[in-house]
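Summary for the lay section of the report: proteins are chains of building blocks that fold into shapes. Here we show the chain for Testis expressed 264, ER-phagy receptor and then a coded description of the shape we predicted for it.
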Amino acid sequence: MADWLLIGLFAALVALLLLTLFGFAVYSGLFTEVIVSAGLPPFSSITVAYKFQVGPYGDSGRLFTESCSISPRLCSIALYYDNPHTVDPEKCRYLVGSILSEGEEKPSEEVVRMFLKYGFKIINFPAPSHVVMATFPYTTPLSIHLAVNRVHTALDVYIKERKLCAHPRLEIYKGNKIHFVCPLARQGDFYVPEMKELEKKSRAAAAAAVAEAEDAQIDITGADTLSENSSVSLETTTNSRDTSVATSILSPFTSSHSRDEVDNRSEHSYSESGASGSSFEELDLEGNGDGDGMAGLSADLGSFEDQDTAKAKWTKEPIALEKERGEE
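The coded shape description reads as follows.
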């Protein structure tokens, strides 16, 4: 009997613990509906004391603790510039701080000195005309984890479906609510000097990379052009040599052409260095064009035949004279 009593008591304690945890999660916003909308921002212009950081967003808790320890009564704020799903967590940029004043109200000089003493910087953010926003209950520390996992996903879907340009992401911890704000206007005013400097360096590095790639492409193109020119020059030299040989072979049979014409043709073939095989085409045209080339060649052959006939005639006449003298 005692054993069953102990088991029942233990089961009741476990059930009570589970119910407590479940109630705590519900109170923290487990079943809270996330409503995303576009409209006027939930704040006017604000003066912020901040520290800029590069690294995983999960490390931001240290800065929240530091800023709250300086002045616990002030509202906390965080700005996230990069999407951790597309950017290396070690390269994500963000800032964390406290809102010193809002609207026309001036911040306390004593509070400003305290934040400056601990390395914080002061900046003023204007109120954008239109924003994408959502709210989530801020009742327990668990609310922060629930909000991060649920609200940012809803914001991503809303912005993507409507193809909006909304950045950066602001989280303002005010009262018992967390305000998530994405400016649709005056976005550049939310970029602190440290962020602008990093953006400038990033653009310079990207421009240098593009210039280096273009130079490499030019070098490759230049090498290809040089190779092509070398091939053309070699081919032209070969063609020119072949043309010279052909000209020297035909020159004895072209006595009807003057030496100047042969020289001019040779110079012309060398000048056509960009056209492969042009010299041979010109020779074919001269041989088959209007018949002048063949006529000259026939005349040259005829002149050689006449010379052979005359030589035979002069050789034959002295023999005939000797025979006549012998008969006498």
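Put simply, here is one thing we learned. Residues 212-313 form one domain.
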